[in-house]
């Protein structure tokens, strides 16, 4: 079974700074998908960014980028020029490429952007 | 952007009572999911549903739980006899297909409190 580990329960950073959230995972599969979801105080789950394991290039979405290290099974999220609206819980998630569609989530990192 | 709609946003019930949580997935979506998040814990997969049947369920999804798509638009989660430990935020999610670029959309959740 896959597991996802987020070792930083809480982080805080000054507005406009850059912050990196860590995520590691464990799987025996070679092809899979990784995601970062944002959960603001409204508690809705919002997809931030996704990475396909067969792609070597790191995904980027505007101020959000990932550092995907497949051999190390590491998938960190970098937020550049952080904004107050980035304050949220961030969950890393794994999805197998084989049939089942479920997401396996980590325990989350609570990120606070300080004005 | 289209949204997954969940009602009610909050539900309070007595232990042993039946509850039905309602979701309206995005109209052209074919794959439906329920996840739950106990306060302070990670999001956990409950069940996936496609073509009017369960395609996968987790250990949490025991005989007390059932899902239904009664009328082609709603997707419901029923808990027959609620327990205190069923208190959680329940998220509905849907996706159009299972292709590589298909995105999973989450609703805003129903906070269930069992007293």
- Point out poorly predicted stretches of chain B: none
β-strand number of chain A: 12
Q: Describe the largest sheet of chain A.
A: 6 strands, mixed
* Large-scale geometry of chain B: globular
Structural class of chain A: mainly beta
| Average residue-wise pLDDT of chain B | 92
Task: Please state roughly what percent of the residues of chain A sit in beta strands, choosing from under 5%, 5-15%, 15-25%, 25-35%, 35-45% or over 45%.
Answer: over 45%
Oligomer: heterodimer
Q: What does the largest sheet of chain B look like? A: 7 strands, mixed
How many helix segments of chain A? 0
Termini distance of chain A?
A: 41 Å
Structure description:
- The complex is a heterodimer of chains A (115) and B (115).
- Chain A is an all-beta fold and 115 residues long.
- Chain A has strands spanning 3-5, 10-14, 19-21, 24-26, 32-39, 46-52, 60-61, 64-69, 74-79, 88-96, 103-105, 109-114.
- In chain A, strands 2, 5, 6, 10, 11 and 12 form a 6-stranded mixed beta sheet that branches. A 4-stranded antiparallel beta sheet of chain A has the order 3-9-8-7, with no helix packed on it.
- In chain A, strand 10 (88-96) and strand 11 (103-105) form a beta hairpin.
- Chain A is globular, with a radius of gyration of 14 Å.
- Chain A starts with a strand and ends with a strand.
- The model of chain A has no long low-confidence stretch (mean pLDDT 93).
- Chain B is mostly beta strands and 115 residues long.
- Chain B starts with a strand and ends with a strand.
- Chain A binds chain B through residues 37, 42-47, 52, 91, 93, 100-108, and chain B through 31, 33, 35, 41-45, 48, 55-56, 58, 89, 91, 93, 95, 98, 100, 103-104, 106-109, 111.
